């Protein structure tokens, strides 16, 4: 069992501990002031020795040597230098300089060690910070979600309850959004596009919003029109240009506009007595001004010229129609004359049924001569054999060259037309079609046969 301390002993121990702390603090303060004085003295000495080559060489060598050999090496170097360069220097000054150099060396060592300790501490703190960040990132996602949710609930409650906090938040958000909108071009363009799409969707989907927007727009335009003269003049000029463009481009609108203007003028003419009198007076004045002898003669000549031109145009059109009609009729007559007869002309030399334009009539004096053989004189020649016949040669398709058709067997001679068509290897047929008339009138078109 330990004996319990009394209050007086506790007070005594506390006083002693307090005194020890005070002594440590005073010693630390004295030590810090001493270090400061030493550093000032070292800087002063170093600046004084800066322009001395011998002293700087000694300093560089002393920093490179070990502490045990520091005094010995310095004394040797210094003695050698003093023997060569500074022979008149006293030993007392040399000792003072050595002491000063030692002070400088000690202070620099302390400063370097302190800087190294601070650097090490900084690196250690940075490493600890990185480890903390890594541990925070590796936390469980559920805990993070719960934490964010709790923070959101707290901020929402504070935003709804505290009006001052709400105003500050709104002002900060407005300021941040305004700065970003004015400085960032990409954000500004995206925001404009988003607002346009949102407004268009809302306009087309929400009927109340559409009505409100239309009323606001009409009210705004009316206020601008009545208050701002420049806007009013611009709207008038634009409406005039649109009306003129529509009047000249759209024929339906032009006709409607003319009809509406006529009805308006007639209404004014029949309802307003002063307008009717003015119109009558204007018509009389124009008639008296324009109805002179010269104008009457000019009008008569103009009307005569118009009648002559009209008659000439009608005559030319009739002549053109007759000319084209005669041309069509003549061509059709020639075609009908050609196709009037079918392949009814049989060539005696080859036995083919040909058209009239494919054969040449036989003239004995023209084709048959005394120098020809009997076989050549015997038969008439067709158009295809005309060249060979004039050259006194047998044509290629001639019956005398033994290319005659074989005799029909007795079994096939008694066949009727239907049986012949059923047995025949080739069926010759002719189809007559009414051609399209085109620009030819129906009375001149080809008729069916």
Provide a brief overview of the structure:
By secondary structure, the protein is an all-alpha fold. The chain has 17 helices and 2 strands. It has helices at residues 7-48, 53-64, 70-84, 91-137, 141-161, 163-183, 185-205, 207-227, 229-249, 251-271, 273-290, 293-338, 364-367, 374-378, 386-390, 410-413, 417-423, and strands spanning 345-346, 353-354.
Care to describe what's here?
The protein is an all-alpha fold and 449 residues long. Among the domains are: 13-135, no CATH class; 178-247, no CATH class; 250-287; 341-406, no CATH class. The chain is 74% helix and 1% strand. The protein contains 17 helices and two strands. The protein has helices at residues 7-48, 53-64, 70-84, 91-137, 141-161, 163-183, 185-205, 207-227, 229-249, 251-271, 273-290, 293-338, 364-367, 374-378, 386-390, 410-413, 417-423; strands at 345-346, 353-354. Strands 1-2 form a two-stranded antiparallel ribbon. Strand 1 and strand 2 form a beta hairpin. Helix 6 (163-183) packs across helix 7 (185-205) and helix 7 crosses helix 8 (207-227). The longest helix has 47 residues, at 91-137. The radius of gyration is 66 Å and the shape is elongated. The termini are far apart.
């Amino acid at each position: 069992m330990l004996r319990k301390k009394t209050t007086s002993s506790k007070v005594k121990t506390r006083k002693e501990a307090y005194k020890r702390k005070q002594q440590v603090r005073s010693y630390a303060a004295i030590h810090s002031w001493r270090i400061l004085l030493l550093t000032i003295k070292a800087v002063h000495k170093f600046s004084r020795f800066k322009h001395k080559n011998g002293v700087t060489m000694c300093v560089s060598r002393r920093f490179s040597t070990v502490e045990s050999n520091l005094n010995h090496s310095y004394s040797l170097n210094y003695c050698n230098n003093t023997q060569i360069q500074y022979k008149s220097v006293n030993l007392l000054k040399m000792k003072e300089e050595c002491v000063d150099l030692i002070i400088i060396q000690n202070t620099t060592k302390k400063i370097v060690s302190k800087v190294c300790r601070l650097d090490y501490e900084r690196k250690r703190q940075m490493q600890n910070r990185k480890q903390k960040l890594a541990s925070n990132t590796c936390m469980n996602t559920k805990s993070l979600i719960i934490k964010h949710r709790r923070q959101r609930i707290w901020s929402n409650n504070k935003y709804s309850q505290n009006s001052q906090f709400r105003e500050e938040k709104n002002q900060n958000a407005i300021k941040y959004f305004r700065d970003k909108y004015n400085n960032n071009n990409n954000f500004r363009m995206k925001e404009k596009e988003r607002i346009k799409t949102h407004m268009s969707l809302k306009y087309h989907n929400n009927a109340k919003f559409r009505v409100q927007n239309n009323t606001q727009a009409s009210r705004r335009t009316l206020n601008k029109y009545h208050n701002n003269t420049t806007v009013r003049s611009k709207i008038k000029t634009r409406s005039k240009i649109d009306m003129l463009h529509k009047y000249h481009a759209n024929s339906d609108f032009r006709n409607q506009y003319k009809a509406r203007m006529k009805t308006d003028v007639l209404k004014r003419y029949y309802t307003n007595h002063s307008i009717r009198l003015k119109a009558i007076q204007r018509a009389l004045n124009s008639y008296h001004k324009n109805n002179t002898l010269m104008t009457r003669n000019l009008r008569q000549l103009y009307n005569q010229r118009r009648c002559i031109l009209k008659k000439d145009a009608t005559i030319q059109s009739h002549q053109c129609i007759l000319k084209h009609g005669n041309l069509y009729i003549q061509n059709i007559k020639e075609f009908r004359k050609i196709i009037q007869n079918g392949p009814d002309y049989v060539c005696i030399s080859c036995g083919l049924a040909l058209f009239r334009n494919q054969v040449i009539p036989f003239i004995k004096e023209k084709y048959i001569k005394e120098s020809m053989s009997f076989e050549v004189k015997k038969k008439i020649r067709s158009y295809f054999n005309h060249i060979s016949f004039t050259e006194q040669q047998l044509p290629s398709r001639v019956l005398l060259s033994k290319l005659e058709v074989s005799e029909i067997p007795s079994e096939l001679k008694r066949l009727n037309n239907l049986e012949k068509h059923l047995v025949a290897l080739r069926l010759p047929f002719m189809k007559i079609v009414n051609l399209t008339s085109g620009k030819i009138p129906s009375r001149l078109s080809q008729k069916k046969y």
